[in-house]
């Protein structure tokens, strides 16, 4: 097991390095030098050369990369934006927690509901619960993520003011208000994933319920809950994989949801960075997303190795 | 503490010797069992009136071609029929209890305790996600209310009983880490974990290599003797049946067509189907030529002909056979459903 964890962690680290290198190379290969963007079109060649020398931009890309990596790994320092001169760590620490909270709550909601609904719908196949779950799954997958968001904003905030139409109330200003401000965004964020994961749980558990070893468990006289546990242990493997990918994926959707609800999370940082051609900040934000994505998948992998040792054995 | 707690043979309670045709009430008694498949308006019967009796400590074999309803009958006893199948009529009594009157909880008290079952394919019949010791211990804890450690200790003794070397280490093994023969031994340990009175073995060796088959069979036979368990042994292999069984039931198209003690069945079979089956036993010294089979196919479900269902393939059939379902010929506890036997 330890070997497995080390192997998987090593692989994750490796993928992070590769992504960061590609990311770095891409942002540095843009024809506009950051100097040109900062100093404007009127700047002279000397001024630009001076700027590049000041910021180490005249060094080979690989050297720049290693310096950047060293700062990031050893000091957790994302560096400073060339354009705004702002400390990017400050920007990220200000906006990331908001997005992270939305995504985490949305994820937990999606996962909990889909596990319960998917399990019930597999156990009570062709019952009203099953039909409801299947309907939700189809609707949730086929409707684009921002659409329920818009409908909910119209129905629950504009028509009647149950929820604020947008904006983010920090936790410091009261728990109730805070929750009210994030309830709809989280719900919108979770619908699609709820649908995907419900469907996955249902089909996976249905398949497992037909397996010989489930009959063996019943032939051994095990209680229903324990038989179900036996089944879930096997059925959850694909669900965990998809959930791992979903978690990373949700950050993408969160960017849209944040715009719709006017919440100042990572979307604000990223969009401002793109508009201002602040490539260093874009790089920092994308790097954060990549780290989250890779870590989520690592956790999913390890969870699966625990759920189903045969997978682990095959990988080792 | 029961005397069998450590599963040692020496201090076991003496097993009442129950011979063939033993007097007294049978342990399991099945009468007129019908099992139907289908939904709403389309029903067909796969088992059409099976009678079967097993006394304590007795080994009863069930043979018959694929699809004759052997597995369904076995599963019906455990009330574990597949989705879509149901017992449409019949009576089943086990140790004085009406099995069909029990609810799910009542059945769960019997399953894995008073009756255990071994399935054909040990690869798929064990949960791939759990160590085998865990699976056995779960069954022990469910039925005996033991703690984790005590249950594992007993699981270890069981693995030893079924002939697995280094049982303590094997407790932690996952099914995929064991060979087919070992898995079937684990299955057996699971099935006998709570001192069953009846063991249902549905083709326990069919999926194994020939050499392993013999070992597993020897192990099963030893254990059922040591523990005094009655066995319902389902098999395609007539030679095996002749070796281990006291009585045999031959099934065809969802019915028992001949039943007798094993010598009578092999030496004086009364049903043409049994005779043809016996002719198909491959001779060990005759390695050339294809294995003889009974020409033709058993009838399809829902299209079972009137009269004797075996008539289209029977080498002794005569006019009456296709006209009327055969009556039962009976002498002592030898029975056959055949007009020719009655002539
Ligand atoms: N789940 C099912 N759905 C529909 N029909 C089934 C199902 N299971 C069994 N049957 C039918 O019931 C009949 C009896 O099946 P059963 O499994 O009892 O046969 P068997 O005698 O055990 O055969 P085998 O030697 O192949 O194991 C077969 O004709 C089969 O087609
Ligand atoms: S009843 Fe007739 S057809 Fe059926 S087995 Fe006997 S002889 Fe053959
Ligand atoms: Mg079968």
TrEMBL record, chain A:
Lineage, please? Bacteria, Pseudomonadati, Pseudomonadota, Alphaproteobacteria, Acetobacterales
Q: Which CDD domains match?
A: TM_PBP2
How is it placed in the membrane, per its record? Multi-pass membrane protein
Pfam families annotated for this entry?
A: BPD_transp_1, BPD_transp_1_N
Q: PROSITE patterns from the xrefs?
A: ABC_TM1
Q: Which Gene3D superfamilies match?
A: MetI-like
InterPro entries with a match to the protein in the record:
BPD_transp_1_N, MetI-like, MetI-like_sf
Give the transmembrane ranges.
98-123, 135-158, 178-197, 235-257, 280-300
Indicate the family of this protein: Belongs to the binding-protein-dependent transport system permease family.
UniProt organism field: Siccirubricoccus soli
Which stretches make up the ABC transmembrane type-1 domain? 96-300
Assigned keywords, A-Z: Cell membrane, Membrane, Transmembrane, Transmembrane helix, Transport
Tell me, in one coarse class, where this protein mainly resides: membrane
- Official protein name in the record: ABC transporter permease
Where does the record place it? Answer: Cell membrane
């Amino acid at each position: 097991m330890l070997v497995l964890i080390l192997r998987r962690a090593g692989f994750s680290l490796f993928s992070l390095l590769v992504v960061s290198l590609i990311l770095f190379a891409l942002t540095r290969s843009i024809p506009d030098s950051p100097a040109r963007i900062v100093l404007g079109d009127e700047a002279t060649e000397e001024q630009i050369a001076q700027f590049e020398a000041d910021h180490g931009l005249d060094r080979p890309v690989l050297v720049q990369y290693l310096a950047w990596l060293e700062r990031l790994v050893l000091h957790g320092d994302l560096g400073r934006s060339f354009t705004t001169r702002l400390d990017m760590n400050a920007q990220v620490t200000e906006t990331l927690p908001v997005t992270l909270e939305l995504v985490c709550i949305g994820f937990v909601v999606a996962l909990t509901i889909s596990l319960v609904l998917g399990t019930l719908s597999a156990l009570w196949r062709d019952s009203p619960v099953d039909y409801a779950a299947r309907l939700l799954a189809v609707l949730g997958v086929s409707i684009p993520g921002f659409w329920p968001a818009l409908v909910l904003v119209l129905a629950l905030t504009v028509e009647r003011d149950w929820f604020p139409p947008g904006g983010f109330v920090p936790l410091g200003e009261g728990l109730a208000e805070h929750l009210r401000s994030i309830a709809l965004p989280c719900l919108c964020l979770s619908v699609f994933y709820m649908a995907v994961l419900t469907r996955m749980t249902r089909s996976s558990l249905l398949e497992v319920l037909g397996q010989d070893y489930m009959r063996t468990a019943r032939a051994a006289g095990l209680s229903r809950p324990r038989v179900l546990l036996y089944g879930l242990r096997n059925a959850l493997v694909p669900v965990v994989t998809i959930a791992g990918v979903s978690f990373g994926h949700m950050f993408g959707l969160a960017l849209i949801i944040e715009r719709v609800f006017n919440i100042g999370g990572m979307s604000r940082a990223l969009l401002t960075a793109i508009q201002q051609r602040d490539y260093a900040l874009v790089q920092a934000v994308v790097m954060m997303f990549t780290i989250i994505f890779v870590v989520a998948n690592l956790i999913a992998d390890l969870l699966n190795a625990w759920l189903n040792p045969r997978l682990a054995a095959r990988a080792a | 503490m029961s005397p069998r707690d450590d599963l040692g043979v020496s201090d076991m309670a003496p097993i009442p010797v129950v011979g063939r045709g033993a007097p007294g009430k049978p342990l399991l008694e099945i009468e007129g069992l019908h099992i139907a498949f289908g939904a709403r308006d389309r029903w067909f019967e796969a088992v059409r009136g099976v009678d079967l009796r097993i006394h304590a400590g007795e080994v009863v074999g069930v043979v018959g071609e694929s699809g004759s309803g052997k597995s369904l009958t076995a599963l019906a006893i455990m009330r574990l029929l597949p989705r879509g199948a149901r017992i449409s009529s019949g009576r089943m009594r086990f140790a004085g209890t009406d099995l069909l009157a029990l609810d799910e909880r009542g059945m769960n008290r019997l399953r894995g305790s008073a009756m255990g079952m071994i399935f054909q394919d040990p690869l798929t019949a064990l949960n791939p996600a759990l160590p085998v010791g865990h699976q056995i211990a779960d069954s022990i804890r469910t039925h005996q209310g033991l703690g984790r450690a005590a249950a594992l200790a007993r699981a270890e003794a069981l693995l030893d009983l079924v002939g697995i070397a280094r049982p303590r280490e094997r407790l932690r093994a996952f099914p995929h880490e064991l060979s087919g023969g070992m898995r079937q031994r684990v299955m057996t340990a699971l099935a006998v974990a709570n001192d069953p009175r009846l063991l249902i073995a549905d083709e326990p060796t069919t999926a194994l290599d020939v050499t392993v088959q013999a070992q597993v069979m020897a192990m099963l036979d030893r254990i059922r003797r040591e523990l005094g368990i009655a066995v319902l042994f389902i098999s395609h292999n007539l030679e095996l049946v002749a070796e281990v069984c006291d009585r045999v039931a031959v099934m065809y198209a969802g019915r028992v067509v001949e039943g007798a003690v094993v010598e009578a069945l092999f030496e004086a079979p009364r049903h043409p189907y049994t005779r043809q089956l016996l002719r198909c036993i491959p001779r060990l010294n005759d390695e050339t030529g294809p294995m003889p089979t009974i020409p033709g196919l058993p009838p399809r479900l829902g299209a079972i002909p009137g009269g004797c269902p075996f008539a289209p393939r029977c080498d002794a059939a005569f006019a009456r056979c296709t006209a009327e379902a055969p009556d039962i010929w009976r002498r002592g506890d030898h029975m056959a459903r055949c007009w020719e036997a009655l002539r």
